[in-house]
Amino acid sequence: MNIRWRNVPLPEPYLIALAAGAVLQAAVPWLLPVPSVVMLPAGVLLVAIGLGLIAWAVRAAQEVEVARPSALITHGPYARSRNPMYLGWTGLALGIALLVGSVWMALAVASAWIYLHAVTIPAEEASLRGAFGDAYRAYSQRVRRWL
């Protein structure tokens, strides 16, 4: 198996969100009003699912450079979501927020998701439409953006 590690993009919006949430949590603690008996298993589950989805997406994309694709990736998790890596990063970041139990982190992760959904992904989709035309349009009709 030849994994292209450059195909594992750093999720800058989520890294910034987690850092900002951690700073806010340290400055003004605000804990989620959920018992740890619920939050900890949910957080572990989201982290595990997120990491698994990221790994599956990286494996499916091993033949294509994700930053400059020469072909559409439509198999593996890409057959069910047009953005499985972002979906995985979302689960991972939200799981971390739950494990820490921070409202600030959860709000920051939600803000990062909104940014990705409103800015990053539409720009990437426009680029893919330009590069792959009707093939991408047909793919986006078949496969949902998230789930």
Brief write-up:
Helices cover 67% and strands 0% of the residues. The protein contains four helices and no strands.
What do these coordinates show?
The mean pLDDT is 94. The chain starts with 11 loop residues before the first helix and ends in a 5-residue tail after the last helix. With 147 residues, the protein is mainly alpha-helical. It has helices spanning 12-27, 36-60, 84-100, 103-142. It has a domain at 82-147.
Topology readout:
Blueprint: H1 12-27, H2 36-60, H3 84-100, H4 103-142
Helix pairs in contact: 1-3, 1-4, 2-3, 3-4
Mean pLDDT: 94
Q: Count helical runs.
A: 4
Shape: elongated
User: What amount of the residues lies in strands?
Assistant: under 5%
Elements, N to C (H/E): HHHH
The N- and C-terminal alpha carbons lie at a distance of 27 Å
The radius of gyration over CA amounts to 17 Å
Question: Would you count the extended β strands for me?
Answer: 0
Helix content: 55-70%
Class computed from helices, strands and strand pairing: mainly alpha
The major sheet is characterized as:
none
Query: Low-confidence spans: pLDDT under 50, at least 5 residues?
Result: none
Task: List key phrases describing it.
147 residues, elongated, mainly alpha
